[in-house]
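Hi everyone, sorry if this is the wrong subforum. Our group has a chain we'd like a structural model of before ordering constructs, and none of us has done structure prediction before. Sequence below.
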Amino acid sequence: MRWKSNKLKELRDQYIGMLSSLYGEDESKQLVHILTEHLFGVTPVRIALKPEKRLSESEILQFHQAVKELLKHKPIQHITGHTTFLDLKLAVNESVLIPRPETEELVQLIVEREKNNSVRLIDIGTGSGCIALAFKKHTPEAQVTAADISAEALKIAGQNAQKQHLEIDLIRIDVLHPDSYAALPVYDVVVSNPPYVTQSDKKLMQKNVLDYEPATALFVENENPLVFYVAILEFSRIHLANGGRIYFEINEQKGPDLVHLLEKHHYMEIALHLDMHGKERFLEAVKK
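Answer:
Right subforum, don't worry. Here is the predicted structure as tokens:
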């Protein structure tokens, strides 16, 4: 990759052109906007006001390296080291999933249901802590626990909690092994966005997800696609209060199967909710 100028505006145009074949023009513009603000603190408005702004050689190299990483499908969030989830700026890396906009909808649903309650909530498979922290911010009286099997994920979640000045408990459990959580208390709310993408669906996934995000947080075997939901219901058999509520993010193709599973476990008020794309993405129910 060669650059023809040290003017920021001209470099931006060059890099947008290079990225467009992979991302399309509109997304390429957005990616370059994010990079220039992240690397140099310069917004598109400032560039328009000062089109002659020049970069030093070291700044050009920084820009160059970031664009090279984008051309290798590296997520922009891993280049900047953070993402935005609702109104939180959260650190992310290759140890955690990058939170999706659909998961924001799940949090909004939970906040709407629980906002007037001083509940004890546990988020199982917390990753970056996005669900736990966003719920805590919008429901300050709640007691929130973030659980994960990954020590690296809990480290990131802890850093995010500290930066956001939000107090949550962090615990390491393996929800597939009851001995790891036997000593935990009873909660009023259980929420989880567990792995639910089947191995056969891998071919539908984009390269930036397959190459850079943790497979253990994404995929389940074709033969046992509901393994984590079954395990979380087993957790909830003892650790969710009667009358407590459970919330899941789900594979859009598994809604009826999960409704049946919850009925078998004697849950009531079972409801499927559509995401912004009209897909069955969220499930809530009340424990009898």
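For your construct planning: The first strand starts at residue 82 and ends at 85. The domain at 93-287 is CATH 3.40.50.150 (Rossmann fold).
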